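The protein record quoted in full:

***
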Amino acid sequence: MKRSLSSFSPAEYRPMAQTEWPTLALLVLCYGLWLAAGLWLYPRLPALALIVMGIAVAFHSSLQHEVLHGHPTRSARLNEALVFLPIGLFYPFRSYKRTHLQHHLDERLTDPHDDPESYYIALFDWLRLPRLLQLLLRANNTLLGRVLLGPPLNVAGFTRAEWKRIARGDARTRDAWVKHGLGLVPVILLVQFAFGVPIWLYAGTAGYLGLALLAVRSYCEHQWSESPEGRTIIVERSVLAPLFLYNNLHFVHHKLPRIPWYRLPEVYRHERADWIRRNGGYVYGSYLEIARAHALRAKEPVAHPVLRRDAVWAGDAEFRPRNPLPATHAE
């Protein structure tokens, strides 16, 4: 009897093709869009060009997410080379890969210490934070706050945590940042001299916009639930879904992370009722529905409602916001 795709476990499922040509085509499209916006559009319509480059940054991050899950070829080195240029500037790919694959341990989802992409903070750490940071993090738990405040808060928190790892002698993290620095050289040269865009302007507009768009997707991807399967969202439809490579169907992705992006809608559509049953009905119709409910009203508390609530200090009360990239690599 033929098994349905959703009946496969993540460990046993493998991509159906040696080379996933749709993903390769999107990589060409992404880099082409970015280059065209910088070389051709910026001299004519600079504001529009920066917006297009911001969209390309978010698109590139979605493609990085595909790569860290083993797409579009069977060669990990080739896959990484395809997304090596860090046009989003802020996050080393290998650090994102390491933290994101750790995040895919579903039994640890939302844990403030064990899930590197959790937006929750342990209660004891929360109580030790300065009042101003508490206010910012409360605002950051609304959708509007996540879009406006999330990019700088996440970049600052993630970078601080990474450099503390390097200071403790973590060679993998150090190497990830060295490779990131090497990739930044051609990006900065292209942006500053070929495009004619000051790098500070690019970072503060296109780079910021790319992270803000991703914040829409990641805003309530996960919630606390006693059942690990109830912790991951399904957003059924959105005009942004292609930009996110259908990672709006996030529960499906978590259960079958080896499925390429272009199969996710089909897998969800064919067994929709079963997917909704399995994740306990944590479903929104669209991101617009989420915006209506939570643009100005937080969906979640900042301190985790159940885990890490004992008065045991686990560190320096370090604010570790989630990596917002599709969200985020076994080396």
